[in-house]
Amino acid sequence: MAVSITVLDCDLLLYGRGQRILDRCRLEDVTDEYLVSTYGFPRSFIDYLVELLGSSLSRPTQRSRAISPETQIMAALGFYTSGSFQTRMGDTIGISQASMSRCVTNVTEALVERVSQFIHFPREDGAIQRLKDEFYNVAGVPGVLGVVDCIHVTIKAPNAEDMSFVNHRGLHSLNCILVCDTQGVLLWAESHRPGSVHDNAVLHQSELCCLFESELQKEGWLLADNAFLLQPWLMTPLQVPSSSPEYRYNMAHSATHSVMERTQRALRLRFRCLDGSKATLQYSPEKASQIILACCILHNIALQHGLDVWSESASAGREQEEECGHVESVDSEAYRMRQELLLTHFS
């Protein structure tokens, strides 16, 4: 449907004089279908975000006119989900590029402030056991607390042309480490490592490694592919299986780990700003990292609201990540634990 659009003075959009709020995109004026097609989410989801973030987006001002939290959120969602340059989405909403940029920054910062509320490992015994039971029901691998992998998100070249951000494909990127459960809910997300850092190094430089080595190791383990080294808390597949138990273990490991592939595909399908096939994030590494984290938070909130975009279709817009194998870890305790797992559950 047609929506009246007027581009406003960008200097008055976010911070004008007084307390009057400008509502450029009123939810009640458009249909759910329009909201989903333009901003990626229905009215109820946007209403929830307004309630969640409204206090952070309505900061006191001495000026008279400012963009409402509702419009700021719609502007940011439009950018996250379209992957379009901010100018194009700003034209859709009826605000200037400068104001659009401030909206994205404000909403991103407000979401990141709440990261621990939406992305975290369960700590209660009952919740941990449910997590392990759900993973066991996938393919029979016991003791699993999550599946872990890394995803590259392309960014513009930093001003300093720092080669540490150039990944194995010759693109500037951030290498982000994610952990998810069987439903694709993210239990961990770190998004600030340069693209040249290998997946295994990203893991061992992360707070996730410290968490498992100090606290969660006794509860179970993560599953990872062969880009990572075997650890007592990190079970990887055998590179050259040679027996029936080893083949069965590898098949069960692959079936369980596939939940991460689907989760990464869901992130890129919903948040096109993370899809390097359309455009790179035109921000500094620090701001790009925050945008990635904001999208991860929104992914979890969407799942909480029953908005699941998992698809078995071909990976539209998905970068094909290059898997790099390792020589098997010589960690004797980790090797012993995996062998015990093979004999106990896959013989």
Automatic annotation (TrEMBL):
Compartments, as annotated in UniProt: Cytoplasm; Nucleus
Transmembrane segments: none
PANTHER family, per database record: NUCLEASE HARBI1-RELATED, PTHR22930
Family named by the database record: Belongs to the HARBI1 family.
Name this polypeptide is given: Putative nuclease HARBI1
Known function: Transposase-derived protein that may have nuclease activity. Does not have transposase activity.
Species of provenance: Leptobrachium leishanense (Leishan spiny toad)
GO cellular component: cytoplasm; nucleus
Higher taxonomy: Eukaryota, Metazoa, Chordata, Craniata, Vertebrata
Gene field: HARBI1
Annotated DDE Tnp4 domain residues: 148-300
InterPro entries in the cross-refs: HARBI1-like, HARBI1_animal, HARBI1_dom
